[in-house]
Write a structure and sequence with these properties.
Largest sheet: 3 strands, parallel
Strand content: 5-15%
Distance between the termini: 39 Å
Radius of gyration: 21 Å
Helix content: 40-55%
Number of strands: 3
């Protein structure tokens, strides 16, 4: 089973289709649209699961995004911006941690 959490363009859909048909893969899940000539049967059979790049869409995700947006704007307006990168992470990147 192959699960593609990125874009479908990162995977050769024709190769995926062939691998499923020849038994090298049992199935394929992608958070995008699976486009491969002649592979509509794989989708219909449930061997390819596609979510149309909407798997992240949930009320909780939208609510948390709005909350973070408001908190960031408030922090900027009050002169207390929220640090995006913590000091320890920055040190680790520079090799000083």
């Amino acid at each position: 089973m192959l699960v593609n959490t990125g874009r479908s363009g990162l995977v050769d859909n024709g190769a995926v289709s062939l691998a499923i048909r020849t038994g090298r893969l049992r199935g394929y899940a992608v958070d995008d649209v699976f486009v491969c000539d002649g592979a509509t049967d794989l989708v219909a059979e449930g061997r390819v699961l596609q979510t149309g790049h909407r798997a992240w869409w949930a009320d909780e995700t939208l609510a948390r995004g709005a909350q973070m947006w408001a908190e960031t704007l408030h922090a900027m307006a009050t002169g207390t911006p929220v640090p995006v990168v913590t000091r320890s992470y920055a040190d680790a990147l520079s090799g000083t941690a």
